[in-house]
Amino acid sequence: MIIPHVNLLGFLALCCYFLTLFPTLVKIIIPRFKREKLVLLLQRYRRQVGILVFLLSVGHGLSWLIMNHKDIFEPNFLWNCWHGILLLVIFGLLAATSNNWSIKIMKKNWKRLHALTYVAMFVMGLHVWDKMSIRWSVLTPFSFCLVLASIGLFGIRVWIQRTTKKLNVDPASSSSV
């Protein structure tokens, strides 16, 4: 089965996005793996991978527009594509501020802005569900799995952080295994 390049670009963007979330999720959920080479490598190049997510997303969106001969000024365009546009805006902001200069200038606000990545996770879930649930391809089950894994692991991370905060324990050091 041939996978359209539009779907492939979207799937690659989703995979890279998951890779940006992975190091933090692993460090909180399975602290003993925080020094593994893969986790350290992903942590080190997280910003570059995030920029790649944005570029792949732009390629995905532009390819979809061209392939489907869509007019962005069409009345229903925004209604039908709001989640894709919102993801592009979020990823654009994150990519534009994924540099040391932005961290230095924005200080605490940089972390607040980059917390939008968790909003993007849920919007990504809506986007994948809305667009792929009708048009299944070979990539659809993998896309659903990645989105559900991201949201599920994020839920576990939040739960761990809240329970350890109530106990005044550092989640990274709470593992005795």
TrEMBL record:
Localization per record: Membrane
Pfam hit, one: Ferric_reduct
Lineage: superkingdom: Bacteria
InterPro entries xref list: Fe3_Rdtase_TM_dom (IPR013130)
Protein name per Swiss-Prot or TrEMBL: Sulfoxide reductase heme-binding subunit YedZ
A Gene Ontology cellular-component term: membrane
Bilayer topology: Multi-pass membrane protein
Gene name for this UniProt entry: yedZ_2
Primary location class: membrane
Keyword Cell membrane found: no
Transmembrane segments: 6-29, 49-67, 82-101, 113-129, 141-160
UniProtKB keywords: Membrane, Transmembrane, Transmembrane helix
Natural source organism: Acaryochloris thomasi RCC1774
Domain Ferric oxidoreductase: 9-124
